[in-house]
Amino acid sequence: MIHLIMWLIRKLRRTTSPAETPDAASGRDEPAAGGQGERLVTSGLVTTVAASVANRSAPAISVRGLSKRFGDRVAFQDVSFEIGYGEVFGFLGPNGAGKTTTVRTLSTLIAPTSGSATVAGIPLAPENGVEIRRRISVMPESPGLYLRLSVAENLDCFADLYEAADPGDRIDRALRAVNLADRARDACGSLSKGLRQRVALARALLSDPEVLFLDEPTAGLDPVAARDVHELIDELRRGGVTIFLTTHRLEEAERLCDRVAILNTTLRMIGRPDDLREQMFAKTLTVRTLAPLPDPGRVFDGLPAVDGWQADGTAAYVLAVSDPVVAAPATTRALVQASADVLSIGESRHSLEDVYLELVNEDAEVRRK
Amino acid sequence: MSISRRRVRAIYRKELREYRRNRSIVAGMAILPLIFLLQPLITVFSLSASAASQLAGRHELLYLLAIPALVPATIAAFSVVGERQQGTLEPVLTTPVRREEFLLGKALACFVPSVAISYAVYVFFLACVEIFGQPAVTSALVRGPDLLAQLIFTPLLAGWSIWVGVAISTRASEVRVAQQLSLLANLPSVAVTTLIAFNVIHATLVVAIGAAVVLLVLNRLGWRLTSTMFDRERLITGTR
User: Fold this and answer.
1) Which of A226, A242, A271 is at the close of a domain?
2) Which is higher by pLDDT, A176 or B199?
3) Contact residues for B135 (Cβ-Cβ < 8 A; gap 6+)
4) Which A residues in the span 49-108 are in contact with B, Cβ-Cβ below 8 Å?
5) What is the pLDDT of residues A2-12, one digit of tens each?
6) Which domain holds residue A189?
7) What whole-number distance in Å separates Cα of residue B227 and Cα of residue B115?
8) Which of A22, A361, A298 has its CA nearest to residue A165?
């Protein structure tokens, strides 16, 4: 209680001092935030201008055999991956796969059961919690705003929690970045779900994070607002911010992410979306003709880079190919020589969604058995 | 471990802003003092000058110490579990705020208005006694040692009540349960102050110093123990 009273007296003294600055208010009793590199903010977004080469050569996030159990229930198990600085990493998986628990673990909210990790170059350990949280920012799935407070008051509280220098300016830029500058005085309770989501995103930008965890950042946003968020993520990536993106929107992951991981309690796959497609599905060319070919075997057999073919309906053929760039011109020439009326020749592209569904269905099948 | 004043202040300011805009909290803070003001006021107005001697052994003023014991109990009980239920706890806990800073900010936000309200009620009561009371009743009621005790024990009792409430709040799963438990846990303090007010427990200097020391120690321990009980994982996931 004595501490409380003394603290209060000091506080009252300080609040009556007109010369107070944000730096002075921070008390300088802790190291400055974001010690790995000098940063500047341009047009509301984070731009890394100089970073320690030594630190940047290490991964932004490194996870080795990480597991989390709640009693008998396994949230995720034996998860290992690395994410480089400036990378946008998509974390996909069905509901209950352990994505949010992974984010919570890496953001030091919960302790792993086993395994190790480094986040923003700092080992994940209870004694490093504050230091890690200085360098990261998390936008949880639910915005979690104080609904009775205005947008600016919400951000003001968090700017102080991050001990941001020049908080007023930082808040203005974060709001401009999410196109909410004109709503600063509105109570958060009066905002739509989409606008609340944008406030939560602005809040995540306040700390100038090295690693930004975004859990479903476009959930509840209309297409235009979602596109704005995508552009923002692109800009953050250009600024060197590492983004750990949890999403159910697979087209979003495909468009934004350098690499994706698919988690279903265990890590099922990890890589660039193109690589995952290649790993999961054979490359194919689809040929459509006006009329069925009289002898398709004579046309397709023995063509370079064509490993096999099969009819797909009456006047369509699917060719398994090892290299579409070689196979497509050769197939075109063969069809012309055979005097076929060609409607189209195209490479069949499997989407990330196909990869995802294939994996999740595989897992469901295994569980049924 | 160093405590960041700025982060404590961030939590404190946020809490006060929320209180101001939450009518149920304002009403809750206003109703309890009114209830506890009623009995002493009736005593003052109903006693004639000749009956003032009845007050000789009593410490009517100390009855009002129930106000700092109970006013902060419900808001302190709301502090952590309330945020958890609103879904606002997770974003805060992902910032660099330490649990000690978070709890100190919360405690201060309960402490300052509770103590201010308590002192305001005392001033109001003393003004009523001075203006409307019989001079004999006034002199029997308003005594230096009682005023001093009032002044000293108000922050001590409020502090203890707050740490009990916050501790319950870190472990409770529902706001209502936390508030009921917090009120229950603070009833012994109210019972003691009431027994002293009605001279069932004889108030001496030694009793006062002993009680003050005990409360000081409990307040110091309260912060540490509550911080130990504050488990981020349990609060976020509801398990462990």
Assistant:
1) A271
2) A176
3) B49
4) 70-71, 101, 104, 107-108
5) 454 555 445 44
6) 57-271
7) 23
8) A22
Question: Chain A residues with CB inside 8 Å of B3's CB?
Answer: 29
Percentage of chain A with pLDDT > 90?
54
- Residues A91 and A187 occupy one common structural domain: yes
Name the pTM for this structure.
0.80
For chain A, where are the E strands, in sequence order?
37-42, 45-51, 61-70, 73-83, 88-92, 114-119, 122-123, 136-139, 211-215, 242-246, 259-264, 266-271, 284-289, 306-311, 316-321, 342-348
Q: Which helix (H) or strand (E) holds B64?
A: none
Residue with tokens 């009956």: B51
CA nearest A213 in B: which residue? B94
List pLDDT tens digits, range B73-103. Answer: 989 999 999 999 999 999 999 999 999 999 9
Whether residue A326 lies within 8 A of chain B, CB to CB, comes out as: no
**pLDDT over 80 (residue B55):** no
In tens, the pLDDT along A69-104 reads 998 999 999 999 999 999 999 999 888 889 999 999
Residue in A7, A144, A160 closest to B91 by CB: A144
Nearest CA in chain A to B82: A146
Regarding whether A291 and A159 lie in a shared domain, the answer is no
Q: Tell which A residues from 16 to 35 touch B, by Cβ distance under 8 Å.
A: 22, 25-27, 29-30, 33
The residue among A202, A236, A271 that closes a domain is: A271
Token pair listed for A345: 């020749």
Interface test with B, best of A2, A4, A107, A136 (most B CBs within 10 A): A4
Q: Check whether B213 has a pLDDT greater than 90.
A: yes
Helix segments in A129-266, DSSP class H: 129-135, 151-161, 167-177, 193-205, 223-238, 250-256
Q: Is A189 on the interface with B (CB under 8 A)?
A: no
Q: In chain A, which residues have their Cβ closer than 8 Å to the Cβ of B6?
A: 22, 25-27, 160, 163
The total number of structural domains that make up chain A: 2
Residue B214 structure tokens: 């005990």
Mean pLDDT, chain B, whole residue set: 88
